[in-house]
Design brief:
Length: 114
């Protein structure tokens, strides 16, 4: 009976682990579900992982156009994925970037404040 009570108390006290990831552009650490995962597939392609569960090497970006622009222009996304992207893949990522909102408070690393 003691074991059962201890286990029940431990379960009530424990909190669920929330995976943290770092945006490759602005370097802010956030919960993984708040970021967009880009994956390098085993076949060699690079694409946006909508589910966050595709197999392959992943890199994370904030859902903000400023972070995407920084990652695509400074090639930090390619560096994180350890691959070169094709013209078609880059164009698809830029299309995705243009569809994202730009946060007014976004101030990625390397940008000036004024």
């Amino acid at each position: 009976m003691m074991k059962k009570n201890r286990k029940a108390i431990r379960n009530r006290m424990s909190r669920r682990h929330v995976p943290q990831r770092t945006c490759v552009a602005c370097r802010h650490v956030r919960p993984a579900r708040e970021l967009v995962r880009i994956v390098r597939l085993s076949g060699g392609g690079v694409e946006v992982d909508e589910t966050g569960k595709k197999p392959g090497r992943g890199a994370y970006l904030c859902p903000d156009a400023a972070c995407w622009e920084l990652a695509l222009t400074k090639q930090s996304l390619e560096h994180a994925l350890k691959t070169e992207t094709t013209v078609e893949e880059k164009e698809a990522l830029w299309r995705q970037c243009r569809s994202l909102p730009r946060s007014p408070s976004a101030n990625p690393v390397g940008s000036t404040g004024g």
